[in-house]
Amino acid sequence: MAELLIVRHGQASFGADNYDRLSDLGRQQARALGQTLRALNWVPDRMICGSLERQKQTLTDLGFDQGFEQHTGWNEYDFHDLLHSRFGGEAPRDVITDRKTHFRALRETLAEWQDGGISQAQESWSHFCQRVEQARQHAVQTQAKRVLVVSSGGVIARLVAASLQLPNDQMIALNLQIKNSSTSRFVFSKEKFFLHEFNSVPHFHNTERAALMTYS
Prior knowledge:
By secondary structure, the protein is an alpha/beta fold. It has a domain at 2-74 and 145-212: Phosphoglycerate mutase-like (Rossmann fold, 3-Layer(aba) Sandwich). The chain has 8 helices and 6 strands, in the order E-H-E-H-E-H-H-H-H-E-H-H-E-E. Strands 3-2-4-1-5-6 form a 6-stranded mixed beta sheet. Helix 1 packs across helix 2, helix 3 packs across helix 5 (99-114) and helix 7 crosses helix 8 (168-175). The longest helix has 16 residues, at 24-39. It starts with a strand and ends in a 16-residue tail after the last strand. The model has no long low-confidence stretch (mean pLDDT 93).
């Protein structure tokens, strides 16, 4: 069977005017993962990412030299749009800039979104699920044996939850524990698609790199 290795992007620039760029730490995380994959002799036959800058930067910093495809189905849900929509057009500043407040509000907002709320958001929950499935199908319709995808936490959590037929609230729990630059591995054939490994960080499994690990 073939492998689909999905990487969550490295740490982005939380609280900055332009969130959609890797922080210096995020770039270190991506480079460390690329070095580890090559040391394990895991080199992709095909590479895909979404269109977000932090995803493309992560793929570049992994250091594989072949070209890559883009598929917008791998893009994260627009959490700023969801938060602002939930709060009537503009979320309180601490919801955007304070990590603890932000992630508490995000958890509550996702639950409301999944239940059909936040109708003014640019994307519905059902559309998000559909495009993630379309991205998955595009990735596995291939002769490649090792497919590398760079995506985001919400997309990865949705794909894991769907593959295990988990309820929506478990998708939220998965989403909030996915580490930056972690890998989730699926195995697939024309008929089958299985989760094999979730949220793995082999590149942080030593004392020198352990301090690089982040969740947001």
